[in-house]
Amino acid sequence: QGYVSLKLLTCLKKIKALTTNWYMTLAAAECSDLLELNEECTKVRRKEALPQWLMCSPTSRLLLIWNASEEQSAEDGADPGQPSLLLSILQRFDSPGDVASVWILHPGEELPKELQCYAKRHKELGQLLCAVMKFNSLESVRRAYSSLREEEKINGRGLCVVPLG
């Protein structure tokens, strides 16, 4: 039903800096216009769902990127190349210092252990030539994601990007 324990919330770092007493967290939740308590007053939830923009914001430092036009060329029998994918990705970043690492993943090859948990959810992993970029900070990945998504909307086909996490 979307409720979270007040005791659990009180243990979170930012709340713990203010109080370790869960009754104090309860008092704050009772005064909130955004939160509601369950009947036992032990759990809290938002009155309204999270805003859509927050749901779309990456919370992981990983982005999955593939070239939709190369996906089409592969279906047509053309040879999609690794260098063109890597170049098209790296050309879009003014500050490559934000990027911690880049994996180029070929169809049919075994995924790195760190990425195997994403394979069921993202069919592109292991089936298409794609790249996974790991960023140094959440702010860097959010900027890159927004920039690439905007470009994807403008150009239609081209680089496709989804956050992993």
UniProtKB/TrEMBL annotation:
Domain HTH La-type RNA-binding: 1-54
PROSITE patterns: HTH_LA (PS50961)
GO MF annotations in UniProt: mRNA binding
InterPro entries documented for this protein: La_dom_prot, La_HTH, WH-like_DNA-bd_sf, WH_DNA-bd_sf
GO cellular component entries: nucleus
Keywords: RNA-binding
The name this protein goes by in its record: HTH La-type RNA-binding domain-containing protein
Origin species: Poecilia formosa (Amazon molly)
